[in-house]
Amino acid sequence: MEYNWKIRKKANEERVEALSSEINVNPTLANILVNRGVDTFQKAKDFFRPDLDKLHDPFLMKDMDKAVNRLKSAIENEEKIMVYGDYDVDGTTSVALFYGFLKQFYDQVSFYIPDRYKEGYGISDKGIQFAADNNFKLIVALDCGIKAIEKVAFATELGVDFIICDHHTPGEEIPKAIAVLDPKRKDCSYPYKELSGCGVGFKLIQAYSEFTGMDPAGLIGFLDLLAISIAADIVPITGENRILTFYGLERINNNPRPGIRALILASKIEKEIEISDIVFKIGPRINASGRIEHAKASVELLIAKDLEDALRRAALVEDVNATRKNFDENITKEALSMIRKMDETKQFKSTVLFKEDWHKGVIGIVASRCIEEFYRPTIILTESNNKATGSARSVYDFDIYEAISECSDLLEQFGGHKYAAGLTLSVDNVVAFQEKFEQVVCSRIETIHMMPVMEIDDEILLDQINYKFYNILKQMAPFGPGNPEPIFCANDVYAENVKVLKDKHLRFNIVQDGQQTQPTCIAFGLADKLKYEDDTYFKMLNGKMRFNIAFDIRENTFRNTSSLQLYVKDIKFD
């Protein structure tokens, strides 16, 4: 896939020079830091040395005092408490965290996850009715509920109280629950707005612990769950999230709970766990239960008490994940084939596909896969409960939510944000929706949206790449939204010692005039890829053609010998 390179503007030169001197790093690294808002000595200290003591006071969050008092009252009066959460990774880790915390000292607590297919997203009438029928007096909703106006009113009629812990953007009206914890409330002055749903739940147990005089050290054992929620829900790894993720990863790598240990073993990860491992290996396994069967299996795995039980439950989740992968692969193949046939007659600027028997649990993944092949706004629809229901995914800087909203006359409901959305419509309206959505996209989309953008932090010379440079880069982790792994480019280079690995990948050294360093590069999937009609990347690299290269820097260890390697992101030939 071709990329537009977007090299970040240089930060303020005086500020870069000052920071470079204050923290003793070279100007290239100082420039990256200043561009990320780390522009003073104190900010750099907080960034490089995350400190749990710097977490914000949980009582700064609107309604926290009400939430803690109601929770304390429920426990003192031995009321039954239901911990209710969404079926995705953020929801299931939230439930495991909050249920696990209460279960340490309180028995009258159970958890409830809605069925994706029978109940849908968020708080359901069925869940509320179950609570009332079984004498639950308090529901703590995690990662959902901020728009559940009618559901909370229904629960109140049945004598069931709600505490809502959510992180999604509220509507104009806030549910009339006992307490609504959401840093995105307009009337909430909590200093950090980007917590995950699990993060809001963590702030509630932090507040309860402080209020009741519990040892705060007991909360550290829940940070592994919290780090997974932050990584998998793609929230910014900045501010308070950076602190929580840093210590959560430390927990995962040194003393994970049995369920997470079992997931690491199932994922066959034999190195230090990074954010990317959670996003691509651990998170999808936790998600699989909710996509294919029922997410309670993932919660039961995450709260398992011993490794033997966790390994048994992880094996069940692994089977479900294998089924999910099979659905994903087969539906993606079908979808790509349909797109190719469509493009034989017309070059579309959007993709809207419908097939009644596609599995609802994977259509969002399929939409993302289609964008990897055909880079344009994509909606994948299937039939569920006699309706067409779908997931939408977007491309760089194109607001798919706004495009869908222009078609609202054909929809029964929709929701989401700039890059992802969900929608439901009558099956009879699918063709009309396909046509109108294409018209809307054609009227809105610009050339810049039609090619993926690679944001590059800085151009560097090859001699800058050494262990001193890399060791500071490494301390900038954990990487993720708001703090991506730095990508560099080197210009006017050529390749030597070009080798093909496993018939798919390329390994080569790059040479730059006037530079002594000739680092090894790994380019995944480029061995037999055509650059032009008759020329492969291998042929062009082997022919010593000059090119510019974008990469990140990593350490490779082979037979107890470590060296720095460049992981190729893109190559542009002159």
Structure description:
The chain is of the alpha/beta class. The chain contains 19 helices and 18 strands. A hairpin with a 3-residue loop joins strand 10 and strand 11 (420-425). Helix 4 (64-76) crosses helix 8 (197-212), helix 8 (197-212) runs antiparallel to helix 9 and helix 13 (296-302) packs across helix 14. The chain is globular and about 75 Å long. The chain starts with a strand and ends with a strand. The relative contact order is 0.08.
Helix count? 19
The biggest beta sheet reads: 5 strands, parallel
Shape designation: globular
Q: What is the strand tally?
A: 18
Widest sheet, order of strands: 3-2-4-5-6
Calculate Rg over CA atoms. 25 Å
- In whole angstroms, how far apart are the ends? 17 Å
Which percent range fits the helix content? 40-55%
Question: What would you say about this model in short?
Answer:
This protein has helices at 13-23, 27-35, 41-48, 64-76, 89-103, 125-133, 149-157, 197-212, 223-232, 239-254, 258-267, 275-292, 296-302, 307-345, 363-373, 400-405, 430-444, 467-474, 537-542, and strands spanning 4-7, 80-85, 109-112, 136-142, 161-165, 179-181, 351-354, 378-384, 387-393, 413-416, 420-425, 453-456, 458-459, 488-501, 505-512, 520-523, 547-558, 561-573.
